[in-house]
Write a structure and sequence with these properties.
Layout lengths: L1 H16 L4 E7 L12 E10 L3 E4 L3 H8 L4 E11 L4 E10 L1
Antiparallel strand pairs: 1-4, 2-3, 2-5, 4-5
């Protein structure tokens, strides 16, 4: 009985804490990517935060398009980086187009 309780506690901890120490994922911001053409250019814009106290940056679509010299946006992705329960986080908008 005690073994089952320990196993259940370990499994619950793994599921609840997964991704809390380090997470780095890229997700699309489109829902219909069936016939998406990315384009010749790529632009990125980011926001960052440290210790949940200080945050800076502009991760907007316009900032990313300007950085890449893009006038027509074809597709967008969002990139998330999270380190140790959010002590450091970075969110990046990535745009593709011409």
């Amino acid at each position: 009985m005690k073994r089952n309780a320990i196993a259940a506690a370990v499994l619950a901890s793994v599921f609840l804490l997964s991704g809390c120490l380090y997470t780095h994922v890229v997700t699309p911001l489109d829902t219909d990517v069936n016939k998406t053409v990315l384009g010749q250019k790529k632009g990125e814009a980011s926001t960052e935060s440290v210790l949940w106290l200080i945050a800076w940056g502009d991760a907007g679509t316009a900032a990313a398009a300007k950085q890449g010299g893009i006038t027509t946006v074809n597709h967008m992705d969002r990139e998330f980086l999270n380190v140790v329960f959010g002590i450091y986080t970075k969110t990046t908008t990535i745009v593709y187009g011409d």
